[in-house]
Known about the structure:
The protein is mainly alpha-helical. It has one domain: ACP-like (Non-ribosomal Peptide Synthetase Peptidyl Carrier Protein, Chain A). It is built from 5 helices and no strands.
Amino acid sequence: xxxxxxxxxxxxxxxxxxxxxxxxxxxxxxxxxxxxxxxxxxxxxxxxxxxxxxxxxxxxxxxxxxxxxxxxxxxxxxxxxxxxxxxxxxxxxxx
Length: 95
């Protein structure tokens, strides 16, 4: 069975969180809360946002810095997927 784009997103995000915050401990489920599990604090969220913006070439607006978008591997992957599927406003305004 081939990996879907969402599977690949989840793998990249999981690997970043494990390497950056869990120091290589591979026990992280897709739905495990970063905040409730004590995996990320406010500084960690900013690091995660920097990773997401740099890796996937998207911008995260201040009003998007909410747990619904950034509190688990699954929520970050869905957020990135949504951002990547929205056409950029600059591309839409080209004459």
